[in-house]
Fold these 2 entries.
Entry 1:
Amino acid sequence: MYGWIWRHLPGNAWVKAVISLVLVLAIVFVLFQWVFPWAEPLLPFNDVTVNGGGSAG
Amino acid sequence: MATTEHENDTQVAPATHRRRRGRGRIAATISVIGELLITGGLVLGLFVVYSLWWTNVIADRQAQREGDRVRQHWAQQQAGGGPPGPLDTADGIGFLHVPAMGRNFEVLVKKGTSVDVLNEGVAGYYTDPVKSAMPWDRTGNVTLAAHRDGHGAKFHNIDKIKDGDAIVFETRDTWYVYKVYDILSQTSKYDVHVIDQIPKESGKTKPGRYITLTTCTPVFTSEYRYIVWGELVRTQKADAKRTPPAELG
């Protein structure tokens, strides 16, 4: 998979490396900005309140 | 020579090629699965970084900004002179100081214990299932919640609080000094009676001026709740320089 991506990136090895880095940073940004904030409340790691219902917190 | 070699190649080719291509396809599939698994592991690792570090960065920044705004607001009202206006609770009602959780431990207290409020890196006072009292009420229990990990992790060191430690609630006009008298290091999240106006679980039977801190325990999970109860000892008027009470010295 990564080999396939590498082969399909344009330019020589240096250009490919730079493009890969930008892609990785873009993916990390998307994860931190949108994916993780969305996923976090769905996971049971951070309920801090007492309540009968059980989801807030 | 070259031609013979070539001919030889084409002669041997069909069978080996087919075998090689078949093996290649299996190998490729396995390597894609492997790469996906590695990617999944990296994403999970990043999620840990996100929840234990990045959310703190964001929440601390936001809490700092909002705390500054509340203090500015107070200073303006004081500078304006005259009788203090009606208390503005929209931005936050005050600050909680707990020397046992760190020398300069201070957290802004805002209304509500919803995820949105607590994720700002503040402590929230309960509005549900039992409404919190305010520190200036004649009797009642001031009930607060904050994150143990991530999003500011304001109550991370709640286990450092011992019986007899001071909890100080700072409002615009007054310092309310509480003393811890009971700790429940593990209870169910359904145990809503811990935030009753008279917290019977802490052994109290008469109305009084109490404070209750709640968060999750053990650290990094939400299995149980950790509860700390305190009782008002004294109050101290806030002066113009906001000299903190002796308990915070």
Note: DSSP finds two helices and no strands in chain A.
Entry 2:
Amino acid sequence: MTEPGHPDGGSRIHETAGVPGTTAETVHTGSGRNRGRGGPVDSMTGRPVLTLRELSVDFPTPQGVVQAVRKLSLDVRLGRRVGFVGESGSGKTTTALAIMRMLADPGHVSGGTIDLGGVDMLKLSEEDMRLARLSRVAYIPQGAMNSLNPVMRVEQQLWDAISAHEGRRNRKELMRRSDEALDSVGLHPRTGRLHPHELSGGMKQRVCIALGMILRPELIIADEPTSALDVVTQRQVMQTLREAQALAGSGLILIGHDMGLMAQSVDELAVLRQGELVEYGDIRRILGNPGHPYTRALISSVPLVGGKSFLRPSSAREAPGSRRPAPLLTFDRVSKVYGKLTALHPLSFTLRGDVPKIISIVGQSGSGKSTLGSIVLGFTHPTAGAVRFEGRDLRRAGAAGKLGFRRDVQAVLQDPYACFNPFYRVRHALAYPYRRFGLARDEAHIRQRMEEVCRTVGLDPDLVLPRYPHQLSGGQRQRLIVARALMLSPKLLVADEPVSMVDASLRATILSNIYDLKDRFGISILYITHDLATAYHVSDYVMVLYRGRVVEAGPPGQVIGNPEHPYTRLLVDSIPWPDPDRPWGGSAGPEPAADHAHVADAPFAYRGSVEGFELVTR
Amino acid sequence: MSRAAPRDRRRDRREPPATDASDQEPVDIPRKAARLRIPPGYLVNRLLTLLLTIWIAATLIWIIPRLSPVDPADIMLGRMAAGAGAVQDADRILDQLRESFGLNDPLIVQYVKYLRNIVLFDFGLSTATFPTKVSALIARALPWTLGLMVLSLLITFFIGNLLGALMVWSHSPKLVRIAIPAAMVFTSIPPILSGLLLMWIFAAKLQWFPLAGAYGLTVEPGWDWAFAASVLHHGFLPALSIVIVTFGFWALGMRGMMITVQGEDYVRLAEAKGLRPRTVLYGYMIRNAILPQITAFALKIGLLVAGQVLVERIFAYNGMGKLLYDAILDQDFPVIQGVSYVIILMTALAVFLVDLAYPLIDPRIRHGSDG
Amino acid sequence: MTGVTTRAARRRMRRFDNPWTNPKLFCGAGLLLAIVALGLLGRLLWDLDLVFTGSAPLKLPPIGFENLRGQPGVPAHPIGTDGSGRDMLALIAIGAPNTLFVGFLASLIGMGAGIVLGFTAGFVGGRTDDTIRVLSDVMITIPPLLILVVFQSAFGDVSLTIMALLIAGFAWQSPTRLIRAQVLSMKQSGYVMMARLSGAPTHHIMFREMLPNLVPYLFGSFIANVTTSIVTAVGLEVLGLGPQRIPTLGRTIYDAISAGALIQNLWWWWGIPTVLLAVMFIGLLLVNLGLDEISNPRLRRLGR
């Protein structure tokens, strides 16, 4: 179904009802003319392996029919990589599942065609569809952590896939093929003999890629393959995926929400919003000249190291500061050991707190940064050393001292979904501590303060406060937690990965809310994150943690803008930039894990200090 | 869709933080596939639990009668003395008997003796059928109970879990998905009631099956067809009355687990791999959903055994249930103690075996993540 | 057309959302209430002295039936009499609520103990936790029936309340395990962290933050425990133990079987209590399924 005679055959987008005219126009002229001539982009001549025409997917619900995908039309060509980008609920995963004919029950394709290499997928029998899965179109679902059967060895999960399509094969052949497949994604064949729980997240995702490639399908659909992985692993996995796809020469659909990752990984981009294709075309064209405001918003939501700050230029006035008799927070050779694992090596620093500062602690998972946060909050007791808040050791404080400490040290935690008790309306989370700390004069006062702080973080109090948590989005909840912190006006705030579970478009808003806490309300902040780009913009000082040790510390412009320690450099290099021309994990870069020894042995890099914060560097 | 999002995110968070940049190779890859073995720490743990269970049960059985205001020893000795017909010398005989049963020793001595004896399966002599050894009575009844129990428990577990799985599986026939839930309502009834009903219909009314006993009075126990047929004929109704009502418990549990497993990513990937629906059902869904069911089996076994004791009593089946019931009627205390102890011991051993088997079917336990 | 179907679908959905309109819960509670009503109405409208031995002719069938001796049922004893001349209606009007009472009381006590032990284990941790955990693991594998058999054959006759207390001694393990596990997982949850950050004292975290979220589990566990307790009680009664002089359903079945009611075709003697017990168990199961559906939305989708 290549539609040679079709007047519109050249373009890969079709005018649909919901797409604003201008956008469609751009795409038409942009890609329609290039087609067939080779054009500036090569491999455009590839035969389309997947053709979607006017694809619509409906989900009947009690509230009426939800159109999860509306009249989607596009082509994926052999050897090409197409990105589907959009927020959760935009229909990108639904489209993938529709292609696989694996839509969850009430959902169904209500219109349009899905053509895979000349075969109408919607007309296949159940059995033919089963055979087409994996052998012709492979789907790597989201959540690599749980994608493998926990009770089966890895290789068995590759073998049953082969035998399901090719019938029984002898063990030797199966073994050879599974070893080859694992080898092709950079895994040792012995990995196949392990059970999934013995593998790390990155390894599991590689196994999934090996699985997707094992029958050489024409099309691979990878649904957020790296969403659960940290930046370094993400880069490695994406590299593997690209290499494997290039080797097989198949088409690839990459589903995601991160424009930077897309820029580094795909040739063409489809931007989806509420089930509609709002923009579609060559990735360079879209990044260089986005046609739709939504695309523009998506691109600008990616924080860049060194780029324009996403923070609102604050009122120039210096944040309210005051002289303190004792430093706000002191770490005196604090360390934490769990059994054989040292989560945090002895660390000493002093945060004066006279002038509010944002101190960023960056590192991958397992670097000890969350342990550090937990120690500051008093949830974890250090194995050795002393933590002093305003000169007093919390562990020796009485009940009143402890309550005072609780009031003065607050937190914004990672998971906004878990932070509200599902039993209560969300106002409970704000009103309870206010009352508990004796800050409230009366009920009216609480109410007034709650409304005030909600407005400050940009939420409508009447709309939000009387709701139950499950009725709010993750972004709204996280903003409420920030509002809660603001309401209590603590002296120190620990923000532990505050935006890692929030949709990309909201991250900037929440971070600027948090930034405002320092800037306008004079709260010192410990910002714990794996995201160097946001740390770059938000913080006054950065400490890079690697296996429980600070390996580099200094002002963000130095540490992140111009890293010295190889580990910091690795982290910075792993950030996917929304710029296809910037090298990212190409064949040029050294295999990151290969130079592990050299990362571990590199000396501590001290990149300068900032007033009000002293790191003791032995 | 929107519901699933937070769940997935939370799950990602639970990932152990040990994944460093060392993603290329695991810390150590075993040279060979891990052998099926039980981690020693786990084994010791389970063994201690087993011993503790037996000890607590034995102690309870020993201590309870001694707390009673009515001395059961007096009752049973009184009955024995009365049975002997010696009326004038009752007190002296009673005293002699007390002496011979060691009841005049200090309590702690009695307790230690008792513990030693039960380890040797020596529960003393039956007072009702004096001087038969209690252990001999139990040895005679035990095979019947074991046979009936192993058979009915396994059949129930198998059928129940299979039906529970089929209730959820999207490829099962519509009939299964509608009929079983309806039938499930009746499976809340304990086996004793279903036993009564079955007995009335098939034994009393239709007379297809015998009313009582484990084999016919006319057949001689032995390894021949006539006897085997008689045993099957007699065992059918008791087994059926257990099976038809307890499968529902497993089916319900399995249904719940299957619903959870159905939403797992690995099931979705299995489907995306183009596996046959049956392979997905058995190898991916049931294989994982059965794990908590096996744990539940270990927890539930006590109640199931108790249910069976009652069924045996109704059907006057020559097993432990009937032995226990007769002993209660006769106030034959050593037998009550012995039977209770042996049944509890059997239960504890069954739990122990299930616990031992568990690491063999769940690799995550096998690798000692949960010692 | 589509409007109609979606409205019907919407109505169906709404029916599940409100716990009080869950059909299973509703039916189950109805059955249980019917048994309670039987007891109450029986006390008001029927002469309960007929429960004493010899107060009525022997072995009369229910109205409309004949017994083996050819005697028809009489209106004075609408559902017959038993082998020792007790009126069946009076018997069940007293016996059925008694059986239910034992189950609920035992489960209530077990639940209370479970809440205390579960919270203690989850919060105190350390040795206390180990002790409670091991003890509940051990006790859960011991069949209560057998220990109770030993107890009752040693102590002789007991009252209903004592029997409930005895059974409660074996009804605390599963709530303890359940609550302990839930408490441990909730302790790590974000909202408990937030409560700790809010300076909440331990009792606030236990009873205001955690307990409300445990309610569906507690209810489910409670009902399951009622079932188990009744099964144990009936089991004891059928073995001829338990209260000797107070009518219960299990005791009636025991008398019937001992008197050979099955062979003599006195089906009403054992059949009526059996059916009542079955109704009780079905009611409890339905309540439990209903609660399950309310607390676990995923089950609802399959709830036909």
Note: The mean pLDDT of chain B is 78.
